[in-house]
Write a structure and sequence with these properties.
Layout (H helix, E strand, L loop, with lengths): L1 H36 L1 H4 L5 H13 L1 H22 L4 E4 L2 E7 L3 E3 L2 E3 L2 E16 L4 H67 L5 H35 L34 H22 L4 E12 L11 E10 L7 H67 L5 H35 L5 H7 L2
Antiparallel strand pairs: 1-5, 2-5, 3-4, 5-6, 6-7
Helix pairs in contact: 3-5, 4-5, 5-6, 5-7, 5-9, 7-8, 8-9
């Protein structure tokens, strides 16, 4: 009874700390996933609708759910591997009845036919003495793979939130362009009607009439394309939010906040924050551990084992002191010949380690390239937006001038319509360039590994 109580106490001390650690890890992971969303950065857009969408994305997106499940799966793999470092205790009960129907001879000794019961109730313990640290290395390798999966989850959060916001902004742009396009079509209809009147009175040629009619048809085609793009974006956002149907709520273009003072130069060391960079670092460590494990597989293994239990031929004597048995031993194991399998495995792991190093170097180059390209795209988008604002201001002045001329009778209605068309077309360019600039900032955000860009303006310049 004392032995049983001691075993229960040991089990309690082993299980409850592990359970508490499991809960602690779950809470830490939940905090990490909230940080992955980086709502502090997205709040710079000052769009409550966007923030609510991102929270819904966090709760309902299937890719994020699968990424979380991958974490849980690999946490269990770490736990399974860690269990190999611990002693193993099993119970293998054996209850049988032997029926010997023939006479057995052992030299001069004769054993007649008999029947008897066998009761064996052993606890078997075994433990591989990890004198070479092989099992510890296996656990470390599994932990590094878990770290890779965690970074993959982080990369999923960064990509999904960035891609969702980019499509959300594109949908707002599409709404605004459709509104402008409808105005353009209405104006072009007036111009076409006036040209038709001039043609009928002989003041306009048929070619001028056809030109205006073709322009009207082209504007209608562009409207159809915008409506198609709008519907595609709505359906895409529904998939992100795991919604089968329903309208996608969004902000108005006029309420969008333009992000000022985004840094245009960023230290390349920031790539160390990227998930793929951290994944490659973990992969090198994992491959290094695997190579060491393969080398230690060439060494002998030593297993300590023992049994304690009850063994009797009659049930009424099963719990007697004489029925108890104990045995223990040491079992060294060494492969004298394995056909070169272990040496081939060692070389394989060394090759994989070299491959991991090459992938690490390649990742550094690709990350720096992506950072530089994204910064250049942002700078170009910012310049184009600034130019489009200047052009829109000039077009506004031109339009106001023609309105003044009309007031004094030196400009016709059709001239006002033409100038208003030019103003709206220029406004479309300004809308596109503004949204493109905002999306380019998101591209930079992805390139730096999902870090708040406003923190980089002081930390990394």
């Amino acid at each position: 009874m004392k032995k049983i109580l001691i075993c229960l106490l040991i089990f309690t001390f082993l299980v409850f700390p592990a359970y508490a650690k499991k809960k602690q890890n779950e809470n830490e992971h939940a905090k990490e996933t909230v940080q992955y969303m980086n709502l502090e950065w997205w709040s710079n857009y000052k769009d409550d609708i966007l923030i609510q969408h991102l929270k819904n994305l966090y709760e309902s997106n299937y890719d994020l759910k699968n990424a979380e499940l991958k974490i849980k799966e690999n946490e269990k793999l770490v736990k399974i591997q860690f269990a190999n470092e611990l002693p193993q205790l099993t119970f293998d009960g054996y209850i049988a009845r032997d029926l010997r129907s023939s006479v057995q001879r052992y030299g001069n000794m004769v054993i007649p036919s008999y029947a008897q019961n066998n009761f064996q109730l052993p606890l078997t313990a075994s433990y591989e003495i990890d004198i070479w640290g092989k099992n510890r290395l296996k656990t470390k390798s599994t932990e590094q793979y878990l770290e890779m999966v965690k970074q993959a989850e982080r990369a999923t959060y960064i990509a999904l939130t960035s891609d969702f916001t980019a499509e959300y902004l594109n949908l707002i742009k599409c709404d605004k362009l459709l509104s402008i396009q409808n105005e353009l079509i209405d104006i072009q209809k007036e111009i076409t009607a006036k040209t038709q009147d001039k043609f009928e009175t002989g003041l306009a040629s048929v070619n001028e009439l056809y030109a205006e009619q073709k322009m009207l048809a082209a504007m209608k085609e562009e409207k159809n394309n915008l409506e198609e793009k709008q519907e595609v974006l709505i359906n895409s956002l529904r998939v992100y939010l795991s919604k089968g149907d329903g309208e996608i709520e969004r902000n108005n273009y006029e309420n969008l906040t333009f992000l000022e003072n985004i840094p245009e130069k960023i230290n390349s060391d920031i790539i160390e924050n990227r998930p793929d960079f951290i994944m490659q670092e973990a992969n090198i460590k994992r491959a290094g551990y695997d190579a060491k494990i393969a080398k230690k597989e060439l060494l002998p293994s030593i297993i300590v084992f023992g049994q304690i239990g009850l063994n009797a031929y009659r049930l009424d004597s099963l719990f007697n002191r004489y029925s108890q048995f104990v045995n223990a031993g040491v079992m060294p194991s060494f492969d004298i010949f394995s056909g070169g399998r272990k040496m081939a495995f060692l070389k394989l792991k060394k090759f994989q380690y070299d491959e991991a190093l090459n992938n690490y170097q390649k990742t550094i180059l690709e990350d720096i390239k992506e950072l530089n390209v994204s910064l250049q795209e942002y700078k170009t988008a910012k310049k184009n937006y600034d130019e489009s604002i200047e052009r829109l201001n000039l077009q506004t002045k031109t339009y106001n001038l023609i309105l003044d001329k009309k007031e004094i009778g030196s400009a016709a209605d059709i001239d006002v319509l033409y100038n208003k068309e030019d103003f709206l077309i220029t406004q479309k360019d300004e809308v596109s360039n503004k949204i493109n600039c905002l999306i380019s900032a998101i591209t930079v955000y992805k390139a730096v590994g999902g870090k708040n860009l406003y923190e980089l303006s002081t930390d990394n310049l």
